């Protein structure tokens, strides 16, 4: 059995509300009077009134509570600007909260509130917790997966020693240096779904037709030179990897090409066998589990964005759309520069 509702008009000001509403000129005051008027009529629930006025049910309920306690005067009382909320955490507590926020300790504000309550025995509620999190610059973000075996020290060391690694290769001084970084991505007929813009309250439906056929695309970006190379392959293997290395080497046969890649089993590695590697190619290998060091990863994200929410019948259709995206990079070197940016790769190349 539902709990009976508190009377909405204990102060008996309903007649004044009905008279005042049509004469009120100020928008926010008129809106509150209308909410109470609808509530007094008794035909709509607070949820239905909220939907009709475009507010949350919590907001409508708070207006009703003001009207019950203070009548029309309380309902139409405007909060003084600049008052804000009264701080209940001191400076040291705020610093501790900031440290935990920086660690990404909580998935929800409710978890942060539970921590505050246990740690400092706070008396405020969840709404003020949101205010504190926002005041500290908190944002709800999508996490980037990070393998448990990743060694952050090796990531830092690779960045700091890249220039020395390039010099240690002892490349011929009479040949120009071309520095590349490469990777590969899988594509297929399995659907890629992404968010879509639509109107509020509208269900978004994405057609799918799952088929398990795959292909691979290799991609390389030239550091400081705005060049790029791509290769479609039906599989990943040492042979496919060697074919791509040869393609890069043929771009400038008279130059020495230093190519950076990850340590995947089908890649040629810095300290592995060099059989089949072109004579004008040298390999450097990224630390394990560190995709953030490879700007080609950004390109694959952009590529998948162009393939999302579509149904493909053949791999050739997928490859046609991929080619359309990648073509923009070999026709406009500025796009290659935008992916590489001014990070460690360019700075270390300029340092030698």
Automatic annotation (TrEMBL):
Residues covered by the Winged helix-turn helix domain: 103-161
Record InterPro entries: Homeodomain-like_sf, RNaseH_sf, Tc1-like_DDE_dom, Transpos_IS630-like, Winged_HTH_dom
GO MF term (any one): nucleic acid binding
Source organism superkingdom: Bacteria
Residues in Tc1-like transposase DDE domain copies: 178-318
Protein name: Transposase
Organism: Prosthecobacter dejongeii
């Amino acid at each position: 059995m539902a709990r009976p509702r508190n009377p909405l008009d204990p102060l008996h000001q309903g007649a004044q509300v009905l008279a005042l509403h049509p004469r009120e000129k100020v928008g926010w005051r008129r809106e509150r009077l209308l909410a109470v008027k609808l509530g007094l009529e008794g035909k709509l629930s607070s949820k239905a009134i909220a939907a009709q006025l475009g507010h949350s049910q919590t907001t409508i309920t708070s207006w009703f509570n003001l009207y019950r306690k203070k009548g029309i005067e309380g309902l139409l009382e405007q909060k003084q600007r600049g008052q804000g909320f009264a701080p209940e955490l001191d400076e040291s507590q705020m610093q501790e909260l900031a440290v935990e926020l920086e660690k990404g300790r909580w998935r929800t504000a409710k978890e942060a509130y539970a921590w505050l309550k246990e740690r400092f025995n706070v008396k405020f509620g969840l709404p003020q917790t949101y205010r504190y999190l926002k005041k500290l610059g908190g944002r709800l973000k999508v996490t980037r997966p990070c393998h448990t075996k990743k060694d952050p020290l090796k990531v830092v060391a690779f960045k700091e020693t890249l220039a020395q690694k390039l010099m240690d290769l002892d490349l011929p001084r009479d040949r120009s240096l071309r520095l590349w970084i490469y990777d590969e991505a899988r594509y297929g007929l399995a659907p890629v779904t992404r968010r879509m813009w639509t109107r509020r309250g509208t269900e978004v439906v994405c057609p799918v037709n799952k088929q398990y056929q795959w292909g691979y695309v290799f991609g390389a970006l030239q550091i400081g030179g705005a060049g790029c190379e791509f290769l479609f392959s039906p599989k990943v293997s040492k042979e496919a990897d060697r074919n791509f290395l040869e393609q890069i080497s043929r771009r400038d046969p008279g130059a020495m090409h230093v190519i950076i890649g990850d340590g995947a089993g089908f890649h040629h590695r810095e300290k592995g066998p060099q059989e089949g590697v072109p004579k004008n190619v040298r390999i450097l290998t990224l630390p394990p589990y560190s995709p953030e060091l490879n700007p080609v990863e950004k390109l694959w994200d952009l590529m998948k964005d162009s393939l999302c929410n579509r149904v493909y019948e053949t791999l050739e259709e997928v490859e046609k759309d991929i080619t359309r995206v990648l073509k923009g990079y070999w026709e406009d070197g500025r796009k290659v520069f935008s992916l590489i940016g001014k990070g460690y790769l360019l700075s270390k190349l300029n340092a030698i």
